[in-house]
Amino acid sequence: MSGKKEVDGLHEKYLVIRRDHIVEGSEVELDNGTVRVEYIPSDPGHKKLFVLSPATDPAAFLALWTYSRFCFPRLATDLKLLLAAIRQHGMSLSQTGRLNLPTALDAMIGRIVGEDDD
Questions:
Q1: Position 78 in a domain
Q2: Within-domain flag for 67
Q3: Calpha distance 99→61 (Å, rounded)
Q4: Residue 1 domain-assigned (yes or no)
Q5: What angle do CA 12, 28, 52 make, to 5 degrees?
Q6: H/E element holding 30?
Q7: 10: how many CB neighbours lie within 10 A of its CB?
Q8: Containing domain of residue 59, as a range?
Q9: Do residues 58 and 97 touch, judged by C-beta distance below 8 A?
Q10: What's the whole-model pTM score?
C-alpha cells in the first residue's frame, strides 16, 4: 500500500444541529456515545460550513447536482445516487425551498435553452 488514505465518497463526517433546536449545555445521544453541545463562535480561522437540504430545496438539489459533476468520481457516484433517491421519493418543499423554487426553475430553464448565467 502506498500509504495514501483512500478517499471516501459520501459519508457522515459532521453532526449538524440547528441552534434554535438546542439549549446551550444540553447533551445529544449518538450511536457512539453522548456529546455535550457547546456554542463555539465562528472566527476567521475556522472553516465555514454551509448546510444544504436537497430533499426540501430545489436550489440545494441543483447545487449538489452541479457539485457532483466536478468532484472526484467516488463522491460523484454517491451524490448522484442520493439525488436519484430524492427524485424517486419526491421533494417536500421547505419554506426556503418554496422561496428558492422560482429562481431554481429559471436557472434550469436557462440551462435547457442554453442561456448563460448572470
A1: yes
A2: yes
A3: 14
A4: no
A5: 40
A6: strand 27-30
A7: 17
A8: 19-40+53-113
A9: yes
A10: 0.70
